[in-house]
Write a structure and sequence with these properties.
This protein has one domain. The chain has 13 helices and no strands. The protein has helices at about 10-15, 20-35, 35-65, 70-75, 80, 85-105, 110-115, 120-155, 170-195, 195-215, 220-225, 230-235, 250-275.
Length: about 280
Amino acid sequence: MSAVTAPAAPARARVAALRVTQGRVLVSEFTKFRSLRSAMWTLLAAVVLMTGLGALFPAVTASQYHTFSWAEKAAFDPVTTSLNGVIFAVVAFGVLGVLPVGGEYSTGMIRSSLTAVPRRLPVLWGKVAVLAGGIFSVSLAASFISFFLGQALLGSHHLGVPVTAHDALRSVIGAALYLTVAGLIGLALGALLRNTAAGITIFAAVFFVIPLLATLLPASISDHLAPCLPSNAGGVIWGGAAHVPDALAPWTGFALLGGYAAVLIGAGAWRLRRSDA
């Protein structure tokens, strides 16, 4: 008696089961991101910087407030004081942005990714979505922790404010938005330059070196240039650009920062499509 064999699955069904979709690419990119130890350590460093310095600045300010001049007391902002860790955390988040693309190019893993996804761009969109979601969720939690911890320390000297105070909630959420877009700029630099060291160097120059150099220019130039620099434009949304003359409105500055990120991501996407890995 001959055995009865089940009919083979149609070739079309097998091909459909293996079809590359944006959802599957997204899951793949998330798996790669959370399994990258350097990314996890960088994320941890960013949180420590943000919350640690978010406690240090208010503690020092509260203890020295009685020595402040009248002008310094008038300029004192308890919300910004508790969020000053953002100034340093942005470095870690920028590095975190460069790593997913720059790291793959440095190890050659990008060839495997693009072989599995011949259309290429879904890989970049997957990285953008994973990085944005990861940075925003972590930085938002760290921002609220920094705010409440800082206000508790300032409150011991009757200097703290509630989260319902004017612009407080916008600043706390704005800090997370600023860090998220800064991380995406790091990702775009990694995709455009295809080198981790170069991406980190350019990111640091854009967010730290160029703003300092701009202050050395004549006031007639720096007063118009400084508000439009990425760090100053985006910093307005959380109060980190109080020293910038003629600073942009909070959401205008954030929109400009987002525009920088969009242009750079577009340039990275163009290079990914047009040049070989």
